Amino acid sequence: MLTVLSTEIVNLAPLRTQIGNTLRPQSITMVDKMQTRASSARVFRSRIPTLLVSMFATFASIYVAGRLWQDSENRVYLIKELDRVIGQGRSVISVDDTLKIIACREQHKKLSALEMELAAARQEGFTSMRSTEINGTDYKRRPLVVIGIFTTFGRKNNRDAIRKAWMGTGAALKKTENEKGIIARFVIGRSANRGDSLDRAIDNENRQTKDFIILDTHVEAPEEFPKKAKLFFAHAAEEWNAEFYSKVNDDVYVNIDALGATLATHLDKPRVYMGCMKSGEVFSEPSQKWYEPEWWKFGDKKSYFRHASGEMYVISQALAKFVSINRAILRTYAHDDISVGSWFIGIDVKHVDEAKFCCSSWTGGAICAGV
């Protein structure tokens, strides 16, 4: 029995081998198919983003093309409108041209206002009639000129003569200020012996007349006149917002109506230095009356540069402020008229040689005269 079974098993071995050979290729074929399907799936998945990018690019191209087409239509429309406007005789004005036109109109308005003010000034005592404004409120009339009458100790008689002749006192002084815009003050420093009888006499006089500018930091002395001029212009520019500032000696008669009329014609000049212009000899000998210690600075010909006579001269507000700002570094020479002229020789200033300021010769229409 066992022998028979062994024989059968042996006979079945070839059959098993044949079945195994038959099944192996089939299993290999199924594995290959599964791998192929997986690969196809990966390929399909990788094509989806590419497709989306292609669609987005297509839509973007369509959008951009549409906008370009719309812009081109707008440009064509604008060109047609431009042609139509030009064809009707109108002009195309740039932004710069428009701003220039606006500026010109503003300047024209200012010019018209100044002409009206000048006409009013001529009718009301030649005052400038221009006012200072704060927050749009007209609160104070700007003076036309501040006159500083340079005086010294012991010359009360001269001051009284000036008050009586043309300056006025009390109500008359105020009326000249309010109606003509002309402010006049005597200018004096302090005694070398501070608080002595000279100082007390000036203080007493000022309490009665109230018409002094007392320069407390200045020592009154003939050789200090140039520094006195500098301090006066600086003080006056800080105290009054005037159009002009004038220096006058205390032996000069001033025709304030003629002065106002002349100054009114120079309101359009921002930096003006006005007077009886001269150019005299530079004296280099100490024994001479008008000795100039620094004579060598004025060249070999020993002649001063052009400057206004010291009896009376006028400077505009801008120049007075220039003196006030630079007072610490402005050089002074032996005489106040030379010193003042030197300050303006190197800057952009309009020098006005006006014969009416030549006080040595009294003529019709003259502004000043020596007395």
UniProtKB/TrEMBL annotation:
Its main location: Golgi. It is an enzyme of class 2 (transferase). Its cofactor is Mn(2+). Residues 47-123 form the DUF4094 domain. The chain crosses the membrane at residues 48-69. It is a single-pass type II membrane protein. Pathway: Protein modification; protein glycosylation. Its EC number is 2.4.1.-. GO terms for molecular function: galactosyltransferase activity. This is Hexosyltransferase. It comes from Prunus avium (Cherry). The lineage of its organism: Eukaryota, Viridiplantae, Streptophyta, Embryophyta, Tracheophyta.
